[in-house]
Amino acid sequence: MGTYFKQMFRRTIAACLTGVIICTMAACGENGKKGKNLVSSDEKNEKIVNLFGPMEKSDPNAKNVARSAFDLTVIQAEEELGVSVEYRTYTAENYQEKTYDEVILNRARNNMDDLYLLNPDTIQVLGSEGKLLDLSELESAKNLRDVVKTANVVDGKLVAIPQEVVAHGLFINKDMFDKYKLELPETPEDFLECCKVFQENGIKTPVGANRWWLENFVFAQAYADLYNGGNTQAEIDALNKGESKYSDYMRAGFEFLQTLIDKGYIDAKKAYTYEAIDGEGGDFLAQKTPIVMAYWGAANTDTAYGNPEFELQVIGFPSSRGHMPVVSMTGYGIGVNAEHLEDAKAVLNSVLSDESLQLYSETNKVISPSKNVEVNCIPALKPLNDKIKENTYVLGSNAGMKLEQWGNTCLIVRELLNGASVEECLAKLDKLQEESLKK
Predict the structure, then answer these.
(1) Spatial distance between the Cα atoms of 89 and 100, rounded to a whole number of angstroms
(2) pLDDT confidence of residue 15
């Protein structure tokens, strides 16, 4: 990764993915307790497991404080195993000048903790460096969905497991589609036709976009066949060896985005500066624009899109194979030289058990990494959920690919929004792939 992209990527990936997890996992707390660990390392516990992550532990004695779903699963593990999980948090004062990823790489490389909540790029880096334990030996790993294994295997080892699968999709104002007698778009051609009809009927900008999630259009078109054509590993191996080019896979997606920009279906200048949901969300909820993109949890959250005054439908992104969810995920990993290795394995195995994942998924209303755990979703999410159940998806993050996907593609899409040509964007991909092959 080039120097510029390294600097920008560190900021991007932490905000893109860990931010989603923080929104769904972080418990409410008192402002004065920011950065404070509520389990002291001075306490004389026989068994302690150190966890480094972006969130603090909720105070169990505080009144009117909602316990996070993650906390609840940790409590179960503590009671079951007789251990104390000590939260070491990114919010501590001495980390203010560093990104989450910078801090966690340093801590994991120096064996400072036992358990870590990792973004896809750090899973890839630490996995390739041999710093993370192979978790396939855990009993709970036997129940994982294929998508989780695919995304978190590095050099043949399962080095991280999430508590939820984050699926991104298109959020559709079904009332507006019905008004103009439009079917929900399956293919890129369908999508462009819908945008054309909306624009012809006075909707100047049919797609509300932000600077984080437009890469999902690229992933859906680039990898629809790779992940659903029955030859996934062979194609990934070819990319990792340089026998195939990422730019060839992604060309159609970047050309599609350029078409959206050229026709005014998205406002590139606004998208370049808009934050996710905060930027385009107002127009979507006010029914001024019929299409936005977001992650699964946004449909369950009143502060996002969970309470619209219209019929909401969440579908996958257009691809040659129809609606295509784009899946990304963080994951929990264990340092291979963790001080409390066996206890850390026991805690993670408990937190990832079907019982704990059922509790977590029901609390947060999310997709579980376990194939045995299903949670009833709201009607708006059914189209996306049906695809996940069918194992129809593409990965926006895959630790098994030498070239990091989510952050790099996000940044190159921003270059497109800022006026770069498709060929210039693809050339950046080629350069990044060449650099990845040298490692």
Answers:
(1) 10
(2) 43
Q: What is the DSSP letter of 324?
A: B
- Which pLDDT does position 90 carry in this prediction? 74
Q: What residue has token string 């606004």?
A: 270
Q: How far is Cα 271 from Cα 14, in angstroms, rounded to an integer?
A: 19
Instruction: Return the structure tokens found at 427.
Output: 């050339």
Paired strand residues for 292? 171
C-alpha 268/C-alpha 18 separation (Å) is: 25
Sign of CA dihedral 270, 273, 274, 276: positive
Distance, in Å, from the CA atom of 359 to the CA atom of 329, rounded to the nearest integer, reads: 19
Which helix (H) or strand (E) segment holds residue 28: the answer is none
Q: Using CA atoms, how far apart are residues 97 and 138, in angstroms rounded to an integer?
A: 36
Q: Which residue's entry shows tokens 């989780």?
A: 148
Residue 90 carries which side chain, given as an amino acid letter?
Answer: Y
Structure tokens at 418: 């800022």
What is the structure's pLDDT at 27? 34
> Can you list the alpha helix ranges (DSSP code H) found in 202-353?
215-228, 232-241, 246-262, 268-273, 281-285, 341-351
CB 101 within 8 A of CB 13: yes
The token duo for 411 is 């940044």
